[in-house]
Design goal:
Elements lengths: L1 H33 L8 H22 L11 H6 L2 H28 L4 H13 L4 H15 L15 H6 L2 H27 L2 H8 L4 H14 L5 H20 L4 H9 L1 E2 L6 E2 L2 H29 L10
């Protein structure tokens, strides 16, 4: 297991390097191609310029840990790292929420298959699994924020707001980001548990006197989670993608909002826009690390969930 983890971490570093290289080269080339006044440079000239910039950037990054400066001359690392705690706090809460609540709802629906509890949970999961976060957040802001005024309608940015108000300002985005993954995960868990209970070895165990709840908690639970685990990184990826809109819509000064502002910086009355490449690269690294870590977490959890599975073992 240790050897496999080390191997995966090395591949994560290689994947991260490839991702950052592609992001840097594509954004730099797009900037040169967009802002190309007469006399026009050829594509070959642009590639030569990008190549020199890329080599210089990677040399500074790998040997000095320097992520460069933004278009406005600010240190990129300091600028991004100030936004990370807020976004990371939201991501962690959403991740824990959809795993725990989704698993609990799926298990509850499977245990009560066919009765009123299963029907209510089924309606909830059917509705919310089809509603992305950027749709859910609108009625939450209107209802809980403007009409009932239970929660802030926009994230409280002013320094005059206390810690409690700022924490309340995280509830709406967390609810918006959690709805779809909780519903999707609950449906997956319910379906797999019911399917596992219908397997031949489970039917034989029931025929020998094992009660339904015993068969669920002793055997079905562990076996049914194996095919569900690969879906976790995918759902987490959708959460990260939805966070771009949620942070911008709700005014959260996090990483996602900074990323969108860095990708598109319009130049007034020109029809052109700037891309803050160094910020985009660092934020891409942040999200890439989150996604790669989620995949590694699932692979490791496989062997914990079922000792018969040995990740990375030779056949």
């Amino acid at each position: 297991m240790t050897r496999y983890i080390i191997f995966r971490i090395l591949w994560m570093l290689v994947s991260l390097f490839i991702i950052l290289s592609l992001v840097y080269v594509i954004t730099r080339f797009a900037m040169l191609d967009m802002h190309n006044p007469p006399p026009k440079r050829t594509m070959e000239d642009n590639w030569m310029i990008v190549r020199q910039q890329y080599l210089s950037y990677m040399r500074n990054l790998l040997f000095s840990g320097d992520w460069g400066l933004s278009n406005r001359g600010r240190d990129v690392w300091t600028l991004v790292i100030d936004k990370v705690p807020l976004t990371l706090r939201i991501m962690v809460v959403v991740f824990i929420s959809f795993l725990s609540i989704g698993f609990g709802l799926g298990l509850l629906a499977a245990v009560n298959e066919g009765n009123i509890i299963d029907t209510i949970i089924g309606i909830f999961t059917m509705v919310f699994s089809s509603l992305p976060s950027f749709i859910i957040i609108v009625p939450l802001v209107i209802g809980l924020g403007y009409m009932l005024q239970w929660l802030p309608a926009q994230y409280p940015l002013s320094v005059r707001f206390d810690t409690q108000t700022r924490l309340l300002g995280l509830i709406i985005p967390i609810l918006a980001l959690s709805g779809q993954p909780i519903a999707t995960f609950a449906r997956l868990v319910r379906g797999e548990i019911i399917e596992t209970l219908a397997a031949d070895h489970m039917l034989i165990a029931r025929a020998k006197g094992l009660k339904r709840n015993q068969s669920i908690f002793r055997h079905a639970l562990r076996n049914s989670m194996v095919p569900v685990l690969p879906e976790i990184p995918t759902m987490f990826l959708f959460v990260m993608l939805n966070s771009f809109f949620v942070e911008s819509f709700y005014g959260i000064p996090g990483v996602a909002k900074l990323f969108l502002n860095s990708v598109y910086q319009p130049i007034m009355d020109t029809g052109y826009f700037l891309i803050d490449t160094n910020i985009v690269v660092l934020i891409s690294a942040f999200y890439a690390v989150l996604g790669l870590s989620a995949n590694l977490f699932v692979d490791i959890f496989y062997s914990v969930l079922d000792p018969r599975i040995r990740v990375g073992a030779k056949r």
